[in-house]
Structure formats: C-alpha cells, structure tokens
Amino acid sequence: MEITTEMIKELRAATSAPMLDCRKALQEANGDFQKAVDYLREKGMATAAKRADRDASNGVVELYSHGNGRVGVMVEVNCETDFVARSEQFRTLAHEIALQIAASAPKYVKAEQIPAAELEHEAEIAQARAREEGKPANVMEKIVQGRIEKYKDEVCLLHQTYIRDENINIEKLILQNVAAIGENVIVRRFQRWELGESTNQA
Which of 28, 184, 191, 194 is the most buried if burial means most Cβ atoms within 10 Å? Predict the structure, then answer.
C-alpha cells in the first residue's frame, strides 16, 4: 500500500513522533493507522525502558486537594532536567498521577516496597479463602499467587489501572510520557491524607 504524505501527517499529529518514524510505522503496519500508532507506542516504550537508569533529580512536588478538601495528595515526580520539569506535558503527568493517588488510594509506589510480612499475611488470607471455597490442593498455589498479584495491582501505584483509561496502568502511562518527553521519569514518593482517618494509616 502506498504511504501518502497525508497519512504521515495524520499519524504525526496523533503521536508527535518524528516524520521518518511515522513513515516507517505506516510501512510496517501496511498503512493501518491503528497498527502504526501501536508500533510507535511500543517503539517509544522500548526507548523509555532504556532511559530508566538515567539519573532523575529534577521535577516537581505536585499538590492536589479533592472533594472540597476531604482528600489531599502530595507526590514527588522526578525527571532529568529543569527544562522538562517546567514543561506542560510533565506538569500534566504529575497532576494525573496525583489524581490517581486521590482516587485509588495506593499504599506504595511499586511492588518491591511491600513488606514481606504484609505479602505473607495476604497469602494466608488467600489460602484460607481458597480452602473455604473448596478449591483442590493442586491449584491452591496458583490461586494464592493470582490473588497476591491482584493485591499488588490494588496497593501499588505503578500497577494500578489508570483511572482515565482501563487499558493501561500507571507504569505504562509514565512510559508513554517518557517516550514523548525523551527523559527518564520516576515517582519518588507520595503521601495521601483523608479527612478523619486515623494517623497510623498516614
């Protein structure tokens, strides 16, 4: 299929990818617009993964208050340069992450931060539940593992489904932005407060 300048322009407008990359993506996808978008996203994410070990010490502390001050969020999102830290795309991403924390109340940034004792406790609960449901012993391990993964998806910010797009999680959202921004981006830490909650949850 012939790749027209119009098709390349349309893809560039949708993805902000360079013209040559848009042409290559359309060639690879045989002119299929959606496949070309997916190709560029995957390529961008691969590039983003390579940037993951770069030092990110600039950034922003984003503050967000929700529900007339019932929920407050403070999140530190880092990037490599002050230039990117001031950009609208980076600021928007930091704001989206703060919204996610307000809405979904994660406890950790990533799974490695969950204490082993907490995971053991969850495994015991999952085992007891599986026994109660009369699950056979030979699939017990698989069921427990599945429930532990589900628990990680609930309590870890990076694993959570993005509130605006259920097809991606927060890690993917960040990777997409890394691909577009061209710098490593990391969520350093966050804190979420809810009116009236006991302090041991903070």
Answer: 184
